[in-house]
Specification:
The protein is mostly helical. It has a domain of 85 residues. It is 49% helix and 7% strand. It is built from four helices and two strands; from the N terminus they run βααααβ. A two-stranded antiparallel ribbon has the order 1-2. Helix 1 packs antiparallel against helix 4. The protein is elongated, with a radius of gyration of 37 Å.
Amino acid sequence: MAQPAGQRVRPRRQRSEPSGGGEVSSTGPQPTVGVSQAPAGRQAPSGDGGPSKRARRKPRRARVYVTRIDPWSVTKAAFLLALAIGIVIVVAVAVAFWTLDSTGALDAVSRTVDDVLGTGGFDLLTTLEFSRVLGLAAVIASVEIVLVSLLATLFAFLYNLTVGLTGGIEVILSDD
């Protein structure tokens, strides 16, 4: 016996409305329901910390061994790190010199040196000019940049040589 076309219920996908958090969940196809029965809708998961559809899984973990380090990558990273440290050295020396000069500490030290050495040809203030101090800081920073870059590259080569004996560094990755 066929039902009139207006009373037939087709199975369809039913979408629930977003529940505040912007989540849209779709439920599977609903069974065909007779005309006199109301469809039983599923409720969307509540955002109040109630039980969710999926049970929480433990985070996956993977053990990875670092068996080779690219020396060129180490050189680039070490150079950038050393460059940042060199900039910090130059700025710190400039700020320290400016602070000592503005508080008068350099004048006091210069008078003390003159008193100890006598009235001679040594003048501390002309020896400690700002341009000389900043130039010395720049030389020290550039030597630091070169040494850190070279030593990091050397250590990368040494690590690659010794990894055959040690097996490498074990790193545990997790999807927490």
